């Protein structure tokens, strides 16, 4: 059984500091930290002007930075073999291959927003599993962004937008903005209700009352830049166009059910019903009624499996087995096509749920999963010291 430890922030910052000094010969002058997240509910609603309800994880990415006198940018990661080096004026949409696009994309976007950044050396380390639907990408963007803004003594007002531009324009992953928002604005002890239409964020305090938010990474890697995510997004845009609304946020279920094309109808139905399920979840949480969350998560998972078609056998297994073993609620989370599930588990059942899921994965011949305790944590910031 593998439980991913978020580590101690001060210790992880000290370790990225010393790795930076080993690599570049001088210590960093700034260290930024930004968390991964697990979305409780509201999947593929963000780019439809909808509602999402993520929780920032205690698992985070740490980025150490030191400004340079010249225009050279160097970036390395303890999670990736290939470092990247280039010149400042070369960075932009289409110019950076691979993982480094997330990091230097933020540098580019902050400069586009008017921040006077020069060359820089960067080193990152992370406790967020990569490609697991837990938003290691936004954690990387925002950790780097925090470190860069700190070099300038600037605040983080432009950070969410810069992270989004890095991911959508430089990397080319057509994601919708939830991840960067919660990575920056996440609140300890709360989920963050994000209204993607108004841009409003509202902390929703979580009284876990003897429950644990248990995340299971199926270790089926998802890939947001291949076609699956983009084609779902295109179907949603097509539905909105046919319905004559700006986004599916404004569509009624009745209108959606009248759409002629079966696939487009099912995609739109998922989005419209999922937005309502976010509202229902917030209402249940306001009453600290975790038992009421069970049927909502169940309906969400079924909608993603059959209408949106973004689940997979490993996710279906993790969710079903968690519920059998005592979870009060469970669903797949994140963009889909692999990634993670999230379950609400009475504290005394957590071990049993992890063991049951592990055993089921062995039986099915799946890779052994990773588990994380999603203790609701704060958003990005500078790590002092
Ligand atoms: P998720 O955000 O759910 O983890 P994504 O596909 O959006 O999945 O982002 C994962 C990608 O982000 C990785 O494949 C890698 O390119 C990049 N990435 C994230 N964290 C790091 C890191 N610490 N070091 C290097 N690359 C990273
Ligand atoms: Mg991501």
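^ Assign residues to that structure.
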């Amino acid at each position: 059984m593998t439980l991913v430890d978020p580590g101690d922030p001060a210790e992880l910052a000290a370790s990225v500091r010393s790795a930076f000094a080993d690599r570049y010969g001088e210590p960093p002058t700034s260290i930024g930290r930004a968390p991964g997240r697990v979305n409780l509910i509201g999947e593929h609603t963000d780019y439809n002007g909808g509602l999402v309800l993520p929780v920032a994880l205690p698992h985070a990415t740490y980025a150490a930075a030191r400004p340079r006198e010249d225009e050279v940018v160097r970036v390395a990661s303890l999670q990736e073999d290939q470092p990247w080096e280039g010149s400042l004026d070369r960075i932009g949409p289409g110019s950076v291959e691979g993982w480094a696009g997330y990091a230097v994309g933020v540098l580019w976007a902050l400069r586009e927003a008017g921040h006077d950044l020069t060359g820089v050396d960067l080193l990152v380390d992370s406790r967020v599993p990569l490609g697991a639907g837990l938003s290691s990408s936004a954690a990387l963007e925002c950790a780097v962004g925090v470190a860069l803004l700190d070099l300038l003594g600037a605040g983080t007002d432009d950070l969410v937008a810069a992270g989004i531009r890095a991911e959508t324009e430089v990397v080319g992953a057509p994601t919708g903005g939830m991840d960067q928002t919660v990575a920056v604005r996440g609140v300890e002890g709360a989920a963050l209700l994000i209204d993607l239409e108004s841009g409003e964020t509202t902390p929703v305090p979580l009284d876990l009352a003897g429950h644990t938010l248990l995340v299971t990474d199926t270790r089926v890697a998802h890939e947001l830049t291949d076609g699956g995510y983009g084609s779902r997004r295109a179907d949603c845009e097509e539905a909105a166009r046919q319905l004559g609304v700006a986004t599916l946020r404004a569509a009624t279920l009745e209108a959606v059910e009248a759409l002629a094309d079966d696939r487009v109808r099912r995609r739109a139905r998922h989005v419209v019903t999922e937005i309502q399920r976010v509202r229902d979840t917030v209402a249940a949480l306001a009453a600290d009624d975790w038992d009421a969350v069970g049927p909502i998560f169940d309906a969400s998972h079924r909608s993603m499996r059959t209408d949106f078609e973004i689940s997979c056998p490993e996710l279906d297994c993790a969710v079903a087995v968690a519920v059998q073993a005592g979870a009060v609620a469970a669903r797949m989370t994140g963009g889909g096509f692999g990634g993670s599930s999230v379950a609400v588990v009475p504290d005394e059942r957590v071990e049993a749920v992890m063991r049951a899921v592990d055993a089921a994965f062995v039986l099915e011949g799946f890779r052994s999963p990773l588990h994380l305790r999603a203790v609701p944590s704060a958003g990005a910031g500078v790590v002092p010291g």
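The two ends are 34 Å apart (CA to CA).
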